[in-house]
Amino acid sequence: MKTIFLDRDGVINRNPPNMGYVRRWSEFSFIPNGLKAIQELTQNGYRIFVITNQAGIGRGLYSEETLKDIHRRMVIEITDAGGKIDAVYYCPHHPDAGCECRKPKPGMLKRAAQEHSINLSSAYFIGDATTDIMAGRRAGAATFLVLTGLGHLSYQDYTNAAYYRRANKEESRPDKIFTDLYTATRWLLNNDS
User: Fold this and answer.
1) For the chain, what is the mean pLDDT?
2) Which domain does 12 fall in, by range?
3) Residue of 7, 128, 132, 180 marked active site
4) pLDDT for position 192
5) Residue 155 has what pLDDT?
6) Is 86 considered catalytic here?
Protein backbone atom coordinates (compact mmCIF):
# COMPACT_ATOMS: atom_id res chain seq x y z
CA MET A 1 0.00 0.00 0.00
CA LYS A 2 1.24 3.51 -0.85
CA THR A 3 2.43 5.46 2.19
CA ILE A 4 3.25 9.11 2.83
CA PHE A 5 4.92 10.46 5.95
CA LEU A 6 4.36 14.17 6.53
CA ASP A 7 6.17 16.49 8.87
CA ARG A 8 3.62 18.78 10.54
CA ASP A 9 4.94 22.30 11.17
CA GLY A 10 5.88 24.00 7.91
CA VAL A 11 4.32 21.25 5.78
CA ILE A 12 0.70 20.91 6.95
CA ASN A 13 0.46 24.10 9.00
CA ARG A 14 2.24 27.43 9.07
CA ASN A 15 4.94 28.02 11.64
CA PRO A 16 3.71 30.77 13.96
CA PRO A 17 5.73 33.97 13.57
CA ASN A 18 8.22 34.66 16.36
CA MET A 19 6.90 31.85 18.56
CA GLY A 20 8.65 28.79 17.19
CA TYR A 21 5.90 26.46 18.39
CA VAL A 22 2.17 26.03 17.92
CA ARG A 23 1.21 26.17 21.59
CA ARG A 24 -2.58 26.08 21.23
CA TRP A 25 -5.17 25.34 18.56
CA SER A 26 -5.81 29.06 17.92
CA GLU A 27 -2.23 29.30 16.59
CA PHE A 28 -2.68 26.42 14.14
CA SER A 29 -3.20 27.55 10.54
CA PHE A 30 -3.23 25.21 7.53
CA ILE A 31 -0.86 26.07 4.69
CA PRO A 32 -2.86 27.00 1.54
CA ASN A 33 -3.96 23.89 -0.40
CA GLY A 34 -2.63 21.61 2.35
CA LEU A 35 -6.07 20.20 3.10
CA LYS A 36 -6.68 19.68 -0.61
CA ALA A 37 -3.36 17.85 -0.97
CA ILE A 38 -4.19 15.48 1.89
CA GLN A 39 -7.68 14.91 0.47
CA GLU A 40 -6.26 14.02 -2.95
CA LEU A 41 -3.65 11.69 -1.46
CA THR A 42 -6.37 9.96 0.57
CA GLN A 43 -8.67 9.61 -2.43
CA ASN A 44 -5.82 8.06 -4.42
CA GLY A 45 -5.17 5.32 -1.88
CA TYR A 46 -2.27 6.70 0.15
CA ARG A 47 -1.96 6.02 3.86
CA ILE A 48 -0.81 9.21 5.58
CA PHE A 49 1.18 9.44 8.80
CA VAL A 50 2.29 12.62 10.55
CA ILE A 51 5.84 12.52 11.99
CA THR A 52 6.67 15.58 14.09
CA ASN A 53 9.24 16.76 16.63
CA GLN A 54 7.48 18.59 19.46
CA ALA A 55 10.29 19.73 21.75
CA GLY A 56 7.99 22.40 23.18
CA ILE A 57 6.75 19.69 25.55
CA GLY A 58 10.28 18.86 26.71
CA ARG A 59 11.00 22.57 27.07
CA GLY A 60 7.89 23.04 29.25
CA LEU A 61 6.17 25.40 26.80
CA TYR A 62 2.97 23.36 26.49
CA SER A 63 1.64 20.07 27.79
CA GLU A 64 1.29 16.72 26.06
CA GLU A 65 -2.48 17.03 26.61
CA THR A 66 -2.46 20.33 24.70
CA LEU A 67 -0.54 18.72 21.84
CA LYS A 68 -3.00 15.82 21.71
CA ASP A 69 -5.87 18.33 21.53
CA ILE A 70 -4.17 20.18 18.65
CA HIS A 71 -3.69 16.89 16.79
CA ARG A 72 -7.27 15.79 17.47
CA ARG A 73 -8.61 19.05 16.02
CA MET A 74 -6.20 18.89 13.07
CA VAL A 75 -7.36 15.36 12.23
CA ILE A 76 -11.03 16.42 12.47
CA GLU A 77 -10.49 19.29 10.03
CA ILE A 78 -8.59 17.02 7.65
CA THR A 79 -11.36 14.40 7.86
CA ASP A 80 -14.04 17.07 7.28
CA ALA A 81 -12.13 18.10 4.14
CA GLY A 82 -12.16 14.52 2.81
CA GLY A 83 -8.68 13.45 3.93
CA LYS A 84 -7.51 10.86 6.40
CA ILE A 85 -4.56 10.71 8.78
CA ASP A 86 -3.82 7.12 9.74
CA ALA A 87 -1.76 8.07 12.81
CA VAL A 88 0.24 10.91 14.33
CA TYR A 89 3.68 10.20 15.82
CA TYR A 90 5.47 12.87 17.83
CA CYS A 91 8.68 13.20 19.78
CA PRO A 92 7.97 15.13 23.01
CA HIS A 93 11.58 15.18 24.18
CA HIS A 94 13.95 18.08 24.70
CA PRO A 95 16.55 18.24 21.88
CA ASP A 96 19.30 17.29 24.37
CA ALA A 97 17.46 14.22 25.70
CA GLY A 98 19.28 11.78 23.40
CA CYS A 99 16.11 9.87 22.54
CA GLU A 100 15.77 7.60 19.52
CA CYS A 101 12.60 9.24 18.20
CA ARG A 102 13.69 12.83 17.55
CA LYS A 103 14.37 13.55 13.90
CA PRO A 104 16.91 13.29 12.26
CA LYS A 105 16.83 9.84 13.89
CA PRO A 106 14.35 7.54 12.11
CA GLY A 107 12.72 6.13 15.25
CA MET A 108 9.20 7.45 14.62
CA LEU A 109 9.21 6.20 11.02
CA LYS A 110 10.45 2.78 12.06
CA ARG A 111 7.84 2.57 14.80
CA ALA A 112 5.08 3.48 12.34
CA ALA A 113 6.43 0.91 9.88
CA GLN A 114 6.36 -1.81 12.51
CA GLU A 115 2.91 -0.91 13.84
CA HIS A 116 1.30 -0.52 10.39
CA SER A 117 3.23 -3.02 8.24
CA ILE A 118 4.82 -0.34 6.07
CA ASN A 119 7.53 -1.09 3.53
CA LEU A 120 9.72 1.96 4.08
CA SER A 121 11.58 1.49 0.79
CA SER A 122 8.38 2.28 -1.10
CA ALA A 123 7.26 5.14 1.20
CA TYR A 124 7.76 8.91 0.87
CA PHE A 125 8.68 11.42 3.55
CA ILE A 126 7.73 15.04 2.88
CA GLY A 127 9.33 17.63 5.13
CA ASP A 128 10.56 21.20 5.27
CA ALA A 129 13.87 20.72 7.08
CA THR A 130 17.16 18.91 6.74
CA THR A 131 16.25 16.82 9.81
CA ASP A 132 13.18 15.51 7.95
CA ILE A 133 15.25 14.56 4.92
CA MET A 134 17.86 12.83 7.07
CA ALA A 135 15.23 10.87 9.03
CA GLY A 136 13.53 9.77 5.82
CA ARG A 137 16.81 8.70 4.22
CA ARG A 138 17.93 6.84 7.35
CA ALA A 139 14.61 4.97 7.32
CA GLY A 140 15.01 4.12 3.63
CA ALA A 141 12.15 6.26 2.30
CA ALA A 142 12.18 8.62 -0.69
CA THR A 143 12.41 12.22 0.52
CA PHE A 144 10.79 15.44 -0.69
CA LEU A 145 11.66 18.90 0.59
CA VAL A 146 8.93 21.55 0.47
CA LEU A 147 9.85 25.23 0.53
CA THR A 148 7.16 26.22 3.02
CA GLY A 149 8.03 26.53 6.70
CA LEU A 150 11.78 26.13 7.10
CA GLY A 151 12.12 24.73 3.59
CA HIS A 152 13.36 27.96 2.05
CA LEU A 153 16.23 28.00 4.57
CA SER A 154 17.06 24.34 3.86
CA TYR A 155 16.98 25.08 0.13
CA GLN A 156 19.54 27.85 0.62
CA ASP A 157 21.75 25.27 2.35
CA TYR A 158 21.37 22.85 -0.57
CA THR A 159 22.44 25.51 -3.04
CA ASN A 160 25.34 26.76 -0.88
CA ALA A 161 28.70 25.17 -1.79
CA ALA A 162 30.12 25.83 1.70
CA TYR A 163 27.27 23.82 3.21
CA TYR A 164 28.18 20.84 1.07
CA ARG A 165 31.82 20.97 2.10
CA ARG A 166 30.77 20.37 5.72
CA ALA A 167 27.59 18.26 5.33
CA ASN A 168 26.99 14.69 4.29
CA LYS A 169 25.53 15.35 0.86
CA GLU A 170 23.72 12.06 0.41
CA GLU A 171 22.12 11.94 3.83
CA SER A 172 20.75 15.48 3.73
CA ARG A 173 19.91 15.89 0.05
CA PRO A 174 16.22 15.37 -0.83
CA ASP A 175 15.20 13.28 -3.81
CA LYS A 176 12.98 16.13 -5.03
CA ILE A 177 12.18 19.72 -4.05
CA PHE A 178 8.69 21.26 -4.38
CA THR A 179 7.09 24.61 -3.61
CA ASP A 180 4.63 23.10 -1.13
CA LEU A 181 2.71 19.96 -0.18
CA TYR A 182 0.17 20.45 -2.95
CA THR A 183 2.78 20.59 -5.74
CA ALA A 184 4.49 17.51 -4.25
CA THR A 185 1.10 15.77 -4.25
CA ARG A 186 0.44 16.66 -7.88
CA TRP A 187 3.82 15.20 -8.85
CA LEU A 188 3.15 12.01 -6.89
CA LEU A 189 -0.27 11.50 -8.43
CA ASN A 190 1.19 11.89 -11.91
CA ASN A 191 4.37 9.85 -11.39
CA ASP A 192 3.96 7.26 -8.62
CA SER A 193 2.63 4.05 -10.07
Assistant:
1) 90
2) 3-191
3) 7
4) 81
5) 47
6) no
